[in-house]
Write a structure and sequence with these properties.
alpha/beta, 7-stranded parallel β-sheet, 6-stranded parallel β-sheet, Rossmann fold, globular, 5 domains, 47% helix, Arc Repressor Mutant, subunit A
């Protein structure tokens, strides 16, 4: 135990573990297959990184997102821990070099995408690995009953068969009882240890509100709640429009979505991370892997399609343990969208078949060709060229991915990867004869000490800034160094990409597993209906509803969600509200409805509007058509 605390302090600077981390680490070190369900921000990555350091060999981490893999590797390398990754954006030569290093156990942590895990090249090297742990991140992806199913996850057990004595650690932020059982079954767990933190966050207050004026409600929320926040929207346009509207009302608000340039996104995220009051309007990908403790409120402009996504996103508020708010806004349009979402997410099979052939035509892939090649894929241009329905086409591409024909990275945004091949003599030659190229090599070595030993992700923006040169000039210099054999250089991949898992097949040979697709369709519909029920249920405490969905039985109401507050309001009557409203009217003489309701909590505002209408009927006040209230 003392050794673990020493490593914890040495590499992470922590004196103590977060809740359940210690128990999970000890279970893994004892050799037990382990399932850990920890909320967003609960410190899941340390649960495999620390055991990897404490034993000989290395930890193999199966992870679904390239950007998160690269961030984790950069973070580990900055702490002096050797780490690397394998994903579908790498060349065969880069894969081979990384696998050779892994076989020599020169890493302590190796990240791999589930698709690359199945490649013949990986399988050839895997038998020579000295693995001390297999970690499966985002483990809900293995379950057909989960909200982000990926078929490649279901083949992880093949790696386990090569290392029968190596424990597996499965990690996820959310899992229903059905999903947890499926995870353990698919991974072949024996006598598993199961750790799960309570769904209930006592410092997080949930509010679900029906409204036809979402922007106005957000304005009221972030006027009253001081601190930084996140507003989740389901479209890029909505992010921008909402941020602009809030700025007009003097709220410091910015936006983040995949359509922005990478450096612009990075800068926007960094500014928000540093601020203690800025609001971020973002699409749902924002927040993954981001640990900002002081987020005071997370609001949903658009309703997620399932409770798992909602709970994860709402959980990004209040990680510091202080009071925080999760506000979910919905209206009739949201309900209609949810009701229709299953048909959009699972289009007809004939349409899926058509999309498969047209994508191959668009990328100019010949029959029986294309396997394990990666292509830049502008999905919106593809949809425009073939005049297809946007949402149905995107979901057809995702279904084909689940059928294991390709892996689609919607927003790859990989970092550039560099490794030095040069010896001392080569660098001396550059210093004498190629001062510009020598300047680049020296700058890279200052930024990344590991670049001689491992393929290292580099941030071109930061390197260019250090070297005081434009990014295109630095890119060209790196290309020249690569051509000279001084470095291996893989430029960053931008935007959407498609990695083919199989050769192109003729229409007659394009097989779809209809039984599995129907299962996924039914599971999606069940999750949608659960989300709708959560929106409409104004009788049961929000925490009790969430806990029940995730298989946790609690009976004590939180007393602080909108349902509990509404019940308390009914018990105390409306006399207090009437007195408060009368006082505000007398002090102001005239006031807008929006300004008046801003004095009250969200769960009180419907009652406040009803009282104002009653006062107007009693001629105690009058309401002008422009929304201004006048006292008589």
């Amino acid at each position: 135990m003392q050794d673990l605390l020493f490593l914890l302090k040495k590499y992470w600077g922590f004196d103590t573990f977060r809740p359940l981390q210690e128990e999970i680490v000890l279970a893994v070190l004892s050799g037990s297959d382990t399932l850990a369900v920890l909320p967003t921000g609960g410190g899941k990555s340390l649960c495999y990184q620390l055991p990897a350091l404490s034993k000989s060999g290395f930890c193999l981490v199966v992870s679904p997102l390239i950007a998160l893999m690269q961030d984790q590797v950069s973070n580990l390398q900055s702490r002096g821990i050797s780490a690397s990754f394998l994903h579908s954006g790498m060349t065969e030569q880069q894969m081979q070099k990384t696998l050779e290093y892994a076989r020599r156990a020169e890493y302590k942590v190796l990240y791999v995408s589930p698709e690359r895990l199945q490649s013949e090249q990986f399988q050839d090297y895997a038998e020579g690995f000295d693995l001390n742990l297999i970690a499966v991140d985002e483990a809900h992806c293995i379950s057909q009953w989960g909200h982000d199913f990926r078929p490649a996850y279901r083949k992880i057990h093949e790696i386990k068969s090569l290392f029968p004595k190596t424990p597996i650690l499965a990690l996820t932020a959310t899992a229903t009882p059905k999903v947890k059982l499926d995870i353990m079954d698919q991974l072949g767990f024996r006598n598993p240890e199961i750790f799960q933190q309570s769904v209930v966050r006592e410092n997080l207050f949930y509010t679900v509100r029906y409204t036809e004026n979402k922007t106005g409600d957000l304005d009221l929320l972030f006027t009253k709640i001081k601190g930084s926040g996140i507003i989740y929207c389901r479209s890029r346009r909505r992010c921008v429009d909402t941020a602009v509207a809030l700025r007009e009302n003097k709220i410091d608000c910015t936006y983040y979505h995949a359509g922005l340039q990478k450096e612009e996104r990075r800068h926007t995220q960094e500014q928000w991370m540093k601020s203690d009051h800025q609001i971020m309007c973002a699409t749902t990908a924002f927040g993954m892997g981001i640990d900002k403790p002081g987020v005071r409120a997370v609001a949903h402009y658009d309703v997620p399609e399932n409770i798992e996504e909602y709970y994860q996103e709402a959980g990004r508020a209040g990680r510091d343990g202080k009071k925080a708010f999760a506000v979910l806004l919905y209206n009739h349009s949201d309900l209609l969208r949810l009701e229709n979402s299953t048909e959009i997410n699972y289009p007809p099979l004939e349409f899926i078949r058509k999309v498969y052939q047209k994508v191959n035509d668009y990328l100019q892939i010949a029959l029986e060709g294309g396997k394990e090649q990666i292509f830049s894929f502008d999905v919106l241009q593809f949809i425009h060229n073939f005049k297809l329905e946007t949402l149905k086409t995107i979901n057809a591409i995702k279904i084909i991915e689940r059928e294991e024909y390709w892996h689609w990275e919607e927003d790859a945004q990989t970092q550039s990867i560099v490794q030095f091949k040069a010896n001392k003599g080569d660098l001396e030659y550059l210093a004498k004869h190629e001062p510009f190229l020598s300047q680049i090599t020296i700058g890279l070595l200052r930024l990344h000490g590991s670049i001689f030993n491992f393929p290292t992700p580099i941030k071109i923006f930061e390197a260019a800034k250090l070297l005081r040169m434009d990014q295109p000039i630095l890119h060209n210099g790196l290309q020249v160094l690569a051509n000279m054999g001084i470095i291996d250089y893989q430029p960053a991949l931008r935007g959407s990409s498609l990695f083919l898992l199989k050769d192109r097949v003729a229409p007659i040979n394009f097989y779809l597993n209809e039984e599995r697709i129907n299962k996924l369709r039914n599971a999606h519909e069940q999750r949608v209906q659960a989300m709708i029920a959560f929106l409409k249920n104004e009788l049961v405490c929000r925490n009790i509803q969430l806990a029940k969905y995730f298989g946790e039985e609690i009976t004590t109401a939180c007393g602080s969600c909108d349902v509990c507050k509404r019940k308390a309001l009914k018990q105390t009557g409306t006399e207090r509200l009437k007195a408060d409203i009368d006082k505000i009217l007398q002090e102001n003489g005239e006031i807008s409805i929006v300004a008046l309701t801003s004095h009250f909590a969200p769960w009180e505002q419907d009652a406040v509007i009803n009282i104002i209408q009653d006062l107007a009927d009693e001629r105690i006040c009058s309401i002008h058509p422009d929304g201004i209230i006048y006292t008589k």
